[in-house]
């Protein structure tokens, strides 16, 4: 039986490739809070410290050690994260005689760098994982992570006790726990387009956009009426094919990576075990390619889009473009930014799932933390993690920065201090490995109408995530999956931005190359393993 998750809903990870910084919203989670969390956790620091002391009593902490934590994101350059980390390390030294080292895998070619780091055999301690976007199960198969079954109860007791056994069950590879899920944090990271409500009204769009045709009408209005504005100043790193699939089919993505865009899906929520493909089935890919070619011909983005390296979100804030694309968490922060920087813009979001209600809840292993297989200090690393996740003082420093510099608390909300300068004082840690609603403080930088608008809409249509315990063993088809990912990276961007010539010919050439790369073999192996998973879940 499929277990209903406690977390927010998500468009299938089809759309995660659409924004490489899938969880960051550009800079990270420092400005994104979970609406509804009250920040009330009296005694949390004391409890966490007691847990740390308990673990310390069972471990030799006499030797000072440094603990690395690998995260995804571009390293902040204004010194604010370093200042907060210094304060964190004073507490780490006091509690467990250790120091944290934050190691950034930056977004440029992040997938390659992340996997190479794990394959290198370097002694990584803690590391961010994500089963639906960071190839966690593949890395587990390659022996990248340490078995945590015996370590967790002893060295991370508060975390161990707070996570239900059914959630630990989804954190296992071959019956052994290899990750700590981010199961206690509410987030909605389903993707869609962001558009200006004021310009939409000028275009005669008075109701929320419900499909891609509505977005096209909006973009055409900008093209015709807004001088010196590029309707969608996109970059080739943005893949929207997953969003199209989400809008115009009932297909679900599987937690396997095929590179730049999704190649394999399953039929629907009613049949989540039959493998299909949005590229080979019906005309999904052709319709998408045709639409994107028409958008290119209409001039909705730059002619040199495939080589363009601009920052779409910054341009949106500057009034120089009218469209952006990412997930709901990002929208919640961006709406507040736009209200400040483009007063009256009334930023709106068209979630791809709105078109036909194809919305899945988020896997609890979308984010989380593993311990590197070659960690030299696994006991102290888990003790550090237990503090990060449960100690109120450390949690606030890591997620929000220094009180009085990055934030103040007024009426139970985080607000920006007087004199706050975004360039000097901006803070983010890109910590997506164990956020905790109990320690979250709502933020004035997140749109307070999210719960009554988009969140309420999602609650009406969401479906349980069906692949929490599915671990795809890609050993039999590893070479073919690599070849398929190379094909999607080579041909996907040109099709997605209408630069591949005739859409029908481009799609056929794409299919042909995927076939040559081993599409049929991978599909057969995937179906075989899904059949076994179906028996497991229904047994």
From TrEMBL:
Entry annotated with the keyword Cell cycle: no
Keywords of the record: Signal
SUPFAM superfamilies in UniProt: Periplasmic binding protein-like II (SSF53850)
Keyword Signal in record: yes
UniProt xrefs under Pfam families: DUF3502 (PF12010)
InterPro entries: DUF3502
Signal peptide: 1-21
Segments crossing the lipid bilayer: none
Domain DUF3502 positions: 466-534
Listed name of the protein: ABC transporter substrate-binding protein
Species: Cohnella hashimotonis
């Amino acid at each position: 039986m499929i277990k209903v998750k406690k977390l927010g809903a998500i468009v299938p990870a089809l759309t995660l490739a659409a924004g490489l910084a899938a969880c960051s919203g550009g800079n990270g989670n420092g400005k994104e809070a979970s609406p509804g969390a009250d920040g009330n956790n009296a005694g949390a620091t004391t409890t966490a410290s007691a847990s740390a002391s308990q673990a310390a009593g069972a471990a030799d902490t006499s030797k000072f050690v440094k603990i690395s934590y690998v995260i995804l994101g571009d390293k902040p350059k204004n010194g604010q994260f370093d200042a907060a980390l210094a304060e964190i390390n004073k507490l780490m030294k006091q509690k467990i005689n250790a120091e944290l080292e934050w190691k950034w895998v930056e977004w440029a070619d992040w997938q390659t760098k992340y996997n190479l780091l794990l394959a290198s055999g370097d002694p990584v301690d803690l590391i961010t994982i994500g089963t639906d976007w960071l190839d966690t199960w593949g890395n587990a198969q390659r022996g990248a992570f340490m078995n945590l079954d015996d370590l967790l109860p002893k060295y991370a007791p508060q975390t161990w006790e707070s996570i239900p056994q059914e959630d630990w069950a989804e954190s296992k590879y071959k019956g052994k726990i290899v990750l700590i899920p981010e199961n206690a944090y509410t987030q909605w990271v389903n993707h869609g387009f962001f558009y200006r409500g004021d310009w939409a009204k000028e275009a005669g769009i008075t109701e929320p956009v419900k499909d891609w045709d509505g977005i096209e009408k909006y973009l055409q209005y900008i093209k015709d009426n807004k001088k010196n504005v590029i309707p969608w100043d996109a970059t080739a790193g943005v893949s929207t094919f997953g969003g199209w699939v989400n809008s115009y089919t009932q297909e679900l993505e599987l937690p396997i990576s095929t590179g730049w865009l999704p190649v394999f899906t399953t039929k629907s929520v009613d049949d989540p075990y039959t493998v299909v493909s949005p590229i080979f089935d019906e005309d999904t890919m052709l319709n998408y390619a045709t639409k994107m070619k028409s958008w290119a011909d209409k001039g909705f983005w730059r002619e040199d889009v495939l080589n363009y390296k601009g920052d779409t979100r910054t341009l949106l804030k500057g009034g120089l473009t009218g469209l952006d694309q990412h997930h709901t968490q990002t929208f919640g922060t961006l709406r507040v930014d736009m209200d400040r920087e483009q007063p009256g813009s009334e930023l709106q979001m068209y979630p791809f799932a709105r078109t036909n209600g194809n919305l899945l809840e988020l896997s609890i292993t979308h984010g989380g933390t593993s311990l590197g297989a070659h960690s030299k200090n696994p006991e102290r690393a888990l003790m550090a993690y237990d503090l990060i996740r449960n100690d109120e003082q450390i949690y606030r420093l890591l997620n929000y920065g220094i009180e009085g510099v990055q934030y103040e608390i007024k009426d139970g909300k985080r607000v920006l201090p007087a004199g706050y300068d975004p360039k000097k004082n901006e803070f983010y840690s890109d910590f997506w490995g164990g956020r905790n609603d109990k320690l979250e403080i709502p933020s004035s930088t997140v749109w307070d109408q999210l719960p009554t608008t988009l969140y309420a809409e999602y609650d009406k249509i969401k479906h349980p995530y069906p692949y929490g315990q599915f671990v795809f063993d890609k050993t039999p088809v590893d070479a073919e999956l690599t070849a398929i990912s190379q094909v999607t990276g080579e041909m996907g961007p040109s099709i997605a931005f209408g630069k591949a010539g005739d859409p029908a010919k481009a799609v056929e050439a794409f299919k042909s190359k995927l076939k040559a790369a081993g599409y049929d073999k991978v599909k057969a192996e995937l179906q075989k393993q899904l059949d076994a998973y179906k028996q497991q879940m229904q047994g």
